[in-house]
Amino acid sequence: QVLLVESGGGLVKPGGSLRLSCATSGFPFNDYPMAWYCQVPGKERELVAYIGREDFSIVEKESAKGRFTISRDNAKSTLYLQMNNLRPEDTAVYFCNVLRRFGYATYNWGQGTQVTVSS
């Protein structure tokens, strides 16, 4: 059974930082590009960033460029998102998954982790 367990979210002040983690199991993590998505109530889930099987990565969400960094630890089957200089607009639920693009395997979404940026 595929598990995607996000953690590391919380309440942070503008300008602060968070490091999100995604612990995975049940699929060959090392074989797939992985991604972080975010979702705000009433809106569609949006791709934030993705990373290849090794270390090639792209931050696709324009507002996150220069502030967020995606990384992975293949030995631990874990995905990370370092979030710096956070803004209130970053407030959302963040999810990890296999990149939903280019015909890769699709797995159910996990619980996500809430990030709230507020003073």
What does this structure look like?
This protein has 119 residues and is an all-beta fold. The chain is built from no helices and ten strands. The chain has strands at residues 3-7, 10-12, 18-25, 34-39, 46-51, 57-59, 68-73, 78-83, 92-98, 113-117. It has a six-stranded mixed beta sheet, with no helix packed on it. A four-stranded antiparallel beta sheet has the order 1-3-8-7, with no helix packed on it. The N and C termini lie far apart (40 Å).
List keywords for this structure.
mainly beta, four-stranded antiparallel sheet, 119 residues, 0% helix, six-stranded mixed sheet, globular
Q: Secondary structure elements and their pairing?
A:
Blueprint: E1 3-7, E2 10-12, E3 18-25, E4 34-39, E5 46-51, E6 57-59, E7 68-73, E8 78-83, E9 92-98, E10 113-117
Short description:
With 119 residues, the chain is an all-beta fold. The protein contains no helices and 10 strands. The strands form 2 sheets. A 6-stranded mixed β-sheet has the order 2-10-9-4-5-6, with no helix packed on it. It has a 4-stranded antiparallel β-sheet with strand order 1-3-8-7, with no helix packed on it.
For the secondary structure, the number of strands is 10
Q: If you compute it from the alpha carbons, what radius of gyration comes out, rounded to the nearest whole angstrom?
A: 13 Å
Largest sheet composition = 6 strands, mixed
Order of helices and strands: EEEEEEEEEE
**In whole angstroms, how far apart are the ends?**
40 Å
Strands of the biggest beta sheet: in what spatial order? 2-10-9-4-5-6
Strand fraction equals over 45%
Helical fraction equals under 10%
Overall shape:
globular
| SS summary, helix count | 0
Helix/strand/pairing class, anyone?
A: mainly beta
Q: Give the rounded overall mean pLDDT.
A: 96
Low-confidence stretches: none
